[in-house]
Amino acid sequence: MIYFLSDTHFYHFNILKLNPEVRKFGYEFEILENLESILKEGDTVYHLGDFTWQLYDEFKVLSRWKRLPGRKVLVMGNHDHRFGREVLKEFFDKVYEFYLLLELDGLRILLSHYPALDLRTQRFPERQEKVEKIFFEENCDILVHGHVHYNGSGPTCGCALKGIPCVNVNVEFWDFRPVSLEEIAVGLKQFPKNAL
């Protein structure tokens, strides 16, 4: 099986302030428990950025992550660049700087930490423009991203305003669990490219 998630923000305790839905310390353990119950050998999980805030592993969160079964792939987010690719390879089988294109079940999927339009914070506009450009140049069907946190209306961003169907796989919006490829495909059927 193939899964996607983002914004685990391990050890980033300010996340409790950023999102009122995350009310307790220990959200990391909920994420890991969900992953441990779902992932099997042969699975692949694509992490779309903002993996951890620190490498000091006081509560063995990062150790548990490393022991998860299956293949782990990271597309780096804004918080991951402080560690660099080489350091993050300790936790992932593959690490990509900005984006990754996948062809799965007839879908051309663009994976990036960033949406094509973030209406909530409007941070990193040049990165959002780059995502938009790649999406159309590569003739993608859907953008799977993270980065956008709690906004009062669910896992939405402004991508549809640019004609880009997308799914935000930030764990905050998915009960702290990964999103399956099947869920992504269902989302695409509900929101085709021409439905604005």
List the helices and strands and how they pair.
Elements: E1 2-5, H1 15-18, H2 27-38, E2 44-47, H3 61-67, E3 71-75, H4 85-88, E4 94-96, E5 99-104, E6 107-112, H5 125-137, E7 142-145, E8 166-168, E9 179-180, H6 181-190
Parallel strand pairs: 1-2, 2-3, 3-4, 6-7, 7-8
Antiparallel strand pairs: 1-9, 5-6
Percent in helix: 25-40%
In CATH's first tier, which class applies?
Alpha Beta
The CATH architecture name reads 4-Layer Sandwich
CATH homolog superfamily: Metallo-dependent phosphatases
Largest sheet: 5 strands, mixed
Shape: globular
Order of helices and strands: EHHEHEHEEEHEEEH
- What radius of gyration results from the CA coordinates? 16 Å
Low-confidence stretches: 192-196
Structural class assignment = alpha/beta
Annotation, overall tally of beta strands: 9
N- and C-termini, Cα separation? 30 Å
Number of helices: 6
CATH fold-level label: Purple Acid Phosphatase, chain A, domain 2
What does this molecule look like?
By secondary structure, the protein is of the alpha/beta class. It is 26% helix and 19% strand. A five-stranded mixed sheet has the order 4-3-2-1-9. The chain has a four-stranded mixed sheet with strand order 5-6-7-8, with helices on both faces. It is globular, with a radius of gyration of 16 Å. The C terminus is likely disordered.
Briefly characterize the structure.
By secondary structure, this protein is of the alpha/beta class.
